[in-house]
Amino acid sequence: LEKSLIVASQKKNVYKIKGRQSKKLINNGDYYISLAWQEIVKVTNRQGDIWEERLIVKTLPDCELTKQYIADEGLFEKEIKMYTDVLPQMENLLEDTEKSGDRLWPRYIGMIPYNMLLLQDLTAKGYKKVDRHLGLDLEHSLFAFKAIAKFHILSVAIKDELMLQSEDFVRFGPIENFRRSDYFLKKLRVLGNTMRNKWESKWYRLADHLVNNSEEIIMRFKEICQLKDNSFNVLNHGDLWISNMLFKYSEFSGKLTGIRFIDFQLRHYGSFALDLQYLLHTSIQTDVLKNHMDDLLVAYHETLVTTAKKLDSSNLKIPSLADIKAEMKDKIFYGLLMASLLLQIMLAEPLEELNLDTLLQNKFINEIKPLSQKQQDRIRTILEPYINSDWTSL
Predict the structure, then answer these.
(1) Is Kinase among this UniProt entry's keywords (predicted)?
(2) Are 209 and 254 in contact (CB under 8 A)?
(3) Residue-by-residue DSSP string for 10-78
(4) I want to staple 118 with a disulfide (CB 3.0 to 4.6 A). Which of 98, 109, 184, 229 is the partner?
(5) What is the CATH number of the domain that holds 239?
(6) In terms of residue numbers, what domain contains 365?
(7) In a domain, 349, yes or no
(8) Alpha-carbon distance 368 to 247, whole Å?
(9) CA atoms of 385 and 390, how far apart (whole Å)
């Protein structure tokens, strides 16, 4: 820790740590793979000046199954390489075109390969999360869509230099890991049985469809995530939901002024629509999803165009708005499946503190409280337009 701070704080000439205080950051319902805590560190330079540095420490969890899962998927290595190799290249592009402070991620401080990552504490700069139960309103949704558009086009600008089309980046863990697929199968069947036993009769057809065709639906999921050369392919965040973004507001007006993305362990190269569908169906308020989809896609497209112009790169091929809408329609199944599989977990409160070991053992399904009527209604609103659809061919 001390060595990393000294290297990262050269301008302040950090010499020694005088004291430190730790605070747990992961709460029930956050469902992060790693352990994370805040370090408030009192440091000094050789002149005797003393001040505080605040940083976030991410490290491996204690749970053995989770450790093995992280090792099998290379999750820590992937995120560390994002901060050491990929994001610095994006920052260089930003510095050439805009204020360097407009990065979309926390500042990297240091790491220990491949089990510890030290990052800037964004809360010390005024960034905060939005309540995951509330979801993102239109203002926050537009801000998020513009930010992820900038992230996506920056990745396109560096894709050849960093070989983002290589197997290491194309590989998307959820479609490769059979243990997780088993979990998906069970979760689909649980959802179908819940629809059949507790929801209105109009849901019975979809309930039976999910239960009887769960394996085919999972195969469709794997198919839709495959890289296609004719898509607008980008480096996806991969886990773009409300708990993986922080927002900043003006102290005077309360106006939204900034956004930062965190947790890049599931980054992968593929269709831009995977990130957008995931965000739409896990994190955005249903009235925004129903009434402002066009506004969000226009904001995304306009940001692609304006950022590409600032980058002054003639080889960046930007899809038309019509192409973006067509790709989003083609990937709607991905969003629906994420809502079906993940929202009940994302919105529920565990009966006790749970960890990924519980999830990997398939115990998690039975260890969450029933959703409130409001949260059930949110899931129904998302799924209802597709209540009579064949999910194996969406």
Answers:
(1) yes
(2) no
(3) GGGT--EEEEEEEEE---TTT--SSEEEEEEEEEE-TT--EEEEEEEEEE--S-HHHHHHHHHHTHHHH
(4) 109
(5) 3.90.1200
(6) 126-386
(7) yes
(8) 28
(9) 12
**Is 249 within a domain?**
yes
Six token digits for residue 77: 């290595």
- pLDDT tens-digit profile of 264-282? 999 999 999 999 999 999 9
116-120 and 108-112 as β-strands: parallel, antiparallel, unpaired?
antiparallel
Confirm if 28 and 350 have CB atoms less than 8 A apart.
Answer: yes
Q: What is the pLDDT of residues 109-161, one digit of tens each?
A: 888 888 889 999 999 999 999 999 899 999 999 999 999 999 999 999 999 99
pTM reported for the whole predicted model: 0.91
Structure tokens at 64: 């053995």
Residue 158 forms part of a structural domain: yes
Q: Which two tokens stand for residue 210?
A: 């999910």
**Nearest-angstrom CA–CA distance, 238 and 79:** 11
For 80, the token pair is 């560390």
User: Does 67 reside within a domain?
Assistant: no
What is the per-residue DSSP string for 159-214?
A: HHHHTTTSHHHH--HHHH-HHHHHHHHHHHHHHHHHHHHHS-GGGHHHHHHHHHTH
